[in-house]
Amino acid sequence: MLHTSSTAISIKALAFSFAIFLFGSCQSNGDTSSDKENVSEEMEKVFEQLPEPHGLVNDFEELLEETEEDVLTLSIEKFKEAFGYEITILTVESIEPMEDAVMYATAIGNKWGVGDAERNDGIVILLSAATSQTAIATGKGVEQTFNDAVTKEIIDQVMIPKFMFDEYFEGFEGALNQLSAIAQSKKN
Description:
This protein is α/β, with parallel strands linked by helices.
């Protein structure tokens, strides 16, 4: 069964937490500028290990048919046109070098520039079927609409029931439909 590890956390907050984690793993010699350089170098190394995007739907696990990717891409484009938020869907075989799916999704959002940087309104929907992990990472700018409880419900009630039966397209499509319905209700 797929599980979540804190479903939706602010991209900024997670990036900060990740920097603190990396900062704590660096040896300190009392020179904070050197420590900051070490953190920056460590984060750069992590970012180098992350894949490069090839569109709004990035199916590195090859779980989706090309036509399904096209349908999801169209849905994401319509969502952005209607609500202004950018979404990317990502499947990966592993979330290494991280241990947490939300941190991985957040790092992807930051590296790929998902959403408007000023508004911090990107959304990354992640599945690693090989490791049975899924997450929805949201930027701070959309947390009021898509808070932790909302994204957890989408994962638990929509995505996981479909993913359990290898219905990946249906799980992603259902998540996009739920996000759209919630955004529409907030818009009215």
